[in-house]
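In response to the reviewer comment on reproducibility (Comment 2.3), we provide here a single inverse folding case reported in full, input and output, so that an independent group could reproduce the run without further information from us. The structure tokens appear first.
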């Protein structure tokens, strides 16, 4: 690498931003990266073809009734409608989270007339502790919807064919039975498109006529009020005590009221997690779940199914925690942990370089969706008639098996509390400590590699198309340095770390892959 690319060493006791102006790209002739650029642009086409193929196969499967939904017979048209409705709801849950969290620092009263639907959502969402409540409730709804999509479109059969076109057993098992094509459908239109749109145009996305107040915010707050996910609040209190964090110094308006009802819900949540865990471990060990049902899976012994499930939970927890740490550290001066936690600093250098933050979010979402589909399989009981093992549910009955075990509700309770919310809470309190290890650094590189492979790159042209269709305009405060948004925080951190940026390009610009001079810094960074 040319000497001009090496970041200069400076006094780490102060924020680097105070000592150097941020370098502005381009740093190198993009002609040297012609193959990388050509491959990326080509990936938009073949990834789109793959997505269309996957979507057709999923809908064809449902239409042919080759699925195993956790309810009695319904017409295929109804199940296709449910499938598309669940995917749409997942997309709204993903996009609204980006907007609600990212817009916390703006004065929403300024946009009451210009963005009335967004104003209605933000007025309630930003009241008191409602952002935290929304995030907790949303996490469960998102996961449970993902579990239901997996059940509604999950394969039930040993052979796949369309007319005279018969798939080989190996192809049917890999792409169809093991839900590889389903993962692509969930990841791209279900999750990434709305995320990418909302990240760039937070206010505009929230103002779209899907009425997020009723379709997203209220359902999430209602879900949170059930108490099934309150265990995360208790964990947060415990970790704050361990970390010596004085919660009384926080914003009193954001503080949650800890009354009798609060602690009752915490106990309900803990009991639900233990109850779910017991039944899922029992089902895994006795080979009642889908972890040991189907070609290849049926050869897995019970103890191995338990270990595999724990591994999936661990990977999902790491992916969730890494995202929270990445966003939290974008607001933190790196000089505060550079010497004490060098691996965490190195990880943030790689994360914030070039367009890596966007690439990370795409790769991370891919891994999370993969784990969601796999955990939906291994934590839900197989079959559609109630029991796989006579008397195997300790006398709970067919209704319990069908509506709590087969639908994946108990699995969602366990996964949401243990693999998602617990790691998110931990990362929010200890963001540096969580990523100061080789596991997280390797996982980050894997996420970047997944995005670079192009397998889910259909999300980019789809996002461009939907953005153009709705005619979304940039947020009114876009580029205003006085408004603290995630994009602003990331640009500040790039400057403080001496990472080159391109003038006029936001870290979350939808068209960034075509405009950011990033090739030299996307997967290769010189460390201070």
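Designed residues, in position order:
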């Amino acid at each position: 690498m040319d000497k001009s690319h090496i970041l200069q060493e400076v006094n780490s006791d102060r924020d680097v931003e105070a000592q150097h102006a941020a370098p502005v790209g381009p740093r190198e002739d993009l002609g040297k990266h012609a193959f990388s650029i050509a491959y990326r642009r080509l990936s938009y086409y073949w990834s789109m073809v793959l997505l269309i193929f996957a979507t057709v196969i999923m809908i064809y499967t449902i239409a042919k009734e080759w699925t195993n939904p956790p309810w009695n017979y319904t017409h295929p048209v109804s199940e296709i409608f449910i499938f598309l409705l669940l995917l749409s709801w997942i997309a709204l849950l993903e996009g609204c989270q980006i907007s609600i969290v990212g817009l916390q620092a703006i004065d929403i009263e300024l946009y009451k007339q210009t963005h009335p639907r967004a104003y209605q959502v933000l007025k309630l969402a930003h009241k008191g502790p409602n952002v935290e409540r929304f995030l907790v409730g949303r996490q469960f709804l998102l996961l449970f919807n993902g579990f239901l999509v997996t059940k509604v479109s999950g394969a039930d059969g040993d052979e796949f064919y369309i007319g005279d076109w018969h798939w080989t057993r190996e192809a049917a098992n890999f792409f169809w039975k093991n839900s590889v094509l389903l993962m692509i459908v969930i990841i791209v239109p279900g999750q990434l498109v709305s995320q990418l749109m909302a990240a760039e145009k937070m206010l505009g996305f929230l103002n779209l006529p899907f009425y997020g107040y009723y379709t997203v915010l209220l359902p999430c707050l209602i879900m949170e009020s059930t108490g099934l996910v309150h265990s995360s609040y208790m964990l947060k209190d415990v970790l704050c005590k361990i970390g010596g964090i004085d919660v009384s110094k926080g914003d009193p308006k954001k503080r949650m009221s800890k009354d009798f009802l609060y602690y009752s819900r915490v106990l309900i949540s803990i009991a639900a997690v233990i109850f779910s865990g017991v039944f899922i471990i029992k089902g895994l060990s006795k080979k009642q779940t889908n972890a040991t049902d189907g070609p290849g899976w049926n050869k897995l012994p019970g103890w191995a199914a338990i270990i595999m499930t724990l591994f999936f939970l661990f990977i999902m927890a790491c992916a969730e925690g890494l995202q929270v740490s990445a966003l939290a550290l974008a607001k933190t001066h790196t000089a505060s942990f550079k010497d004490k936690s060098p691996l965490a600093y190195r990880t943030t250098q790689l994360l914030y370089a070039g367009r890596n933050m966007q690439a990370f979010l795409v790769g991370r979402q891919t891994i999370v969706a993969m784990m969601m589909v796999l955990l939906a399989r291994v934590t839900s009981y197989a079959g559609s008639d109630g029991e796989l093992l006579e008397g195997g549910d300790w006398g709970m009955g067919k209704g319990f098996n069908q509506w709590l075990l087969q639908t994946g509700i108990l699995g969602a309770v366990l996964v949401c509390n243990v693999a998602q919310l617990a790691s998110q809470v931990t990362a929010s309190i200890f963001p540096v400590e969580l990523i100061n290890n080789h596991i997280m650094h390797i996982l980050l590189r894997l996420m970047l590699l997944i995005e670079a492979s192009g397998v889910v790159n259909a999300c980019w042209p789809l996002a461009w198309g939907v953005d153009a269709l709705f005619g979304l305009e940039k947020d009114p405060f876009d580029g205003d340095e006085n408004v603290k948004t995630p994009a602003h925080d990331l640009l500040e951190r790039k400057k403080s770390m001496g990472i080159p940026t391109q003038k006029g390009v936001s870290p979350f610009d939808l068209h960034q892959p075509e405009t950011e001079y990033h090739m030299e810094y996307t997967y290769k960074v010189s460390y201070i």
